[in-house]
């Protein structure tokens, strides 16, 4: 995060003082969370919440449950959220939260008590006008519902816009589930348009077949692109005439969430998928899959980053020297936070939008953001990744200048 921030900050030409303001998080909170486990013993977990910036508006960012979570990771992820929200021009700052725990080894009751305890510990940090959590690794609508309940009890009224990513009945938004994959598709089609690539003649490979990857594959297919390969943790599946995405989704849904054993395709490895000669490569699984070790073997004409941080900073130069167009994560996967913002807006106005309205507005936000970043990349003659950071840093820095400080 910092190496890319540094490069963009230099190009925007912000002052040293502004650099320090944007580099240091506004607030970092560490809490001890005692929780009674099912066996009656009390275990103390460590929880974090970092608000990187609230200059553009209330801070926004997920809560992750993972044994490896630590303050440094949460700080980097919080800053990422600031840049992501600024790139798509939604009035949010950036935040992130985490609890160091292994949810796979905990019962639902233990997780519930932990989440409620975390909510109480963060009562003076989070809030619909201050800092709005959302799901991240290890959390989902269930955890968001517990946060709404605990926060609402403390405030003596129902406050459902304290989080986004809630179940629909609690004020969640239509379209949120598919929003990130949909945004990835809009970003890919916008990039194809710039490269004068006809979607109906284009091929794509998608790594990761979870929330982001499967919706991106489905929607790319719907827009005429031949998706020749998909993959998940069980490996890759290749068919040069195109994978039947609808069949792959229903196979996964009836097969404990994995593609293991999926027919109608040749089995390849995840590494092989990355180096296929396709037009569009969508890494949508996890971070650091494209590194300096395999970047030279990438043959795709463009990479659209569905995952957060799939390309390591050390691979950037190799990818750029090959002339591959990279639509960076903070732009390509911002469709999710955009519809989260729509969820919060709907909660505030007490009205539900139709799916059609949400999709149209989200597509417009993504398309406008892509055009803004593309124009900036032309003006500064830099890759899209740097251009996205330039757009974001410039927006936050100039807002700060108008607001002023002490
Ligand atoms: P998910 O858990 O729904 O899906 C992850 C997929 O990746 C699964 O199919 C899994 O089998 C596969 N996978 C895991 N390890 C793999 C490996 N080593 N090789 C190949 N495939 C592997 O997660 P998701 O919500 O789709 O998120 C994927 C990425 O997108 C993450 O980096 C996440 O941070 C990012 N992201 C998600 C959202 C969102 O709204 N869900 C928003 C922005 C960014």
UniProtKB/TrEMBL annotation:
Keyword Nucleotide-binding applies: yes
Residues the record lists as binding NAD(+): 180, 211
CDD domains registered for this protein in UniProt: NAD_bind_1_Glu_DH
GO molecular function, one term: glutamate dehydrogenase (NAD+) activity
Active site: 96
SUPFAM superfamilies in UniProt: Aminoacid dehydrogenase-like, N-terminal domain (SSF53223), NAD(P)-binding Rossmann-fold domains (SSF51735)
Binding site for substrate: 60, 84, 340
Domain Glutamate/phenylalanine/leucine/valine/L-tryptophan dehydrogenase C-terminal: residue ranges: 173-404
SMART domains hit by this protein: ELFV_dehydrog
Signal peptide stretch: none
Keyword field: NAD, Nucleotide-binding, Oxidoreductase
GO biological process, one term: L-glutamate catabolic process
Annotated positions for site Important for catalysis: 136
Family (UniProt): Belongs to the Glu/Leu/Phe/Val dehydrogenases family.
PANTHER family noted in UniProt: GLUTAMATE DEHYDROGENASE, GLUTAMATE DEHYDROGENASE 1, MITOCHONDRIAL
Protein name as it appears in the record: Glutamate dehydrogenase
């Amino acid at each position: 995060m910092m190496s890319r921030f540094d490069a963009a900050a230099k190009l925007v030409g912000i002052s040293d003082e502004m650099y320090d303001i944007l580099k240091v998080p506004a607030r970092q909170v560490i809490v001890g969370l005692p929780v009674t486990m099912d066996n009656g013993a009390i275990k103390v977990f460590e929880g974090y919440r970092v608000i990187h910036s609230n200059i553009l508006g209330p801070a926004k960012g997920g809560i992750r449950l993972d044994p490896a979570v630590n303050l440094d990771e949460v700080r980097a992820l919080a800053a990422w959220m600031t840049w992501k929200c600024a790139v798509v021009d939604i009035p949010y700052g950036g935040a992130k939260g985490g609890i160091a725990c292994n949810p796979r080894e905990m019962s639902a009751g233990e997780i519930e008590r932990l989440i409620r305890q975390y909510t109480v510990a963060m009562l003076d940090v989070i809030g619909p006008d201050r800092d709005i959590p959302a799901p991240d690794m290890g959390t989902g609508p269930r955890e968001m519902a517990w946060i709404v309940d605990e926060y609402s009890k403390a405030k003596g009224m129902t406050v459902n816009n304290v989080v986004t990513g809630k179940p629909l009945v609690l004020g969640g938004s239509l379209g949120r589930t598919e929003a990130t994959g949909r945004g990835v598709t809009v970003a890919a089609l916008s990039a194809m348009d710039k490269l004068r690539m006809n979607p109906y003649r284009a091929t794509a490979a998608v790594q990761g077949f979870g929330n982001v990857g499967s919706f991106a594959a489905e929607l790319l297919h719907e827009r005429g692109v031949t998706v020749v390969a998909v993959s998940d943790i069980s490996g890759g599946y290749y068919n040069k005439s195109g994978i039947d995405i609808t069949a792959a989704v229903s196979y996964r849904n009836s097969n404990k969430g994995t593609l293991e054993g999926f027919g109608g395709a040749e089995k390849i490895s995840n590494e092989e998928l990355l180096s296929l000669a396709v037009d569009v490569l969508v890494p949508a699984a996890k971070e650091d899959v494209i590194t300096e070790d395999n970047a030279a073997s990438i043959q795709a004409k463009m990479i659209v980053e569905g995952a957060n941080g799939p390309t390591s900073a050390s691979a950037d130069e190799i990818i750029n020297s090959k002339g591959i167009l990279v639509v960076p994560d903070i732009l390509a996967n911002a469709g999710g936070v955009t519809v989260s913002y729509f969820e919060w807006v709907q909660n505030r106005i007490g009205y539900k939008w139709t799916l059609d309205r949400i999709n149209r507005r989200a597509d417009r936000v993504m398309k406008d953001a892509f055009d803004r970043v593309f124009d900036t990349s032309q003006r500064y003659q830099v890759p899209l990744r740097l251009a996205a950071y330039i757009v974001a840093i410039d927006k936050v820095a100039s807002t700060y200048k108008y607001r002023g400080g002490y």
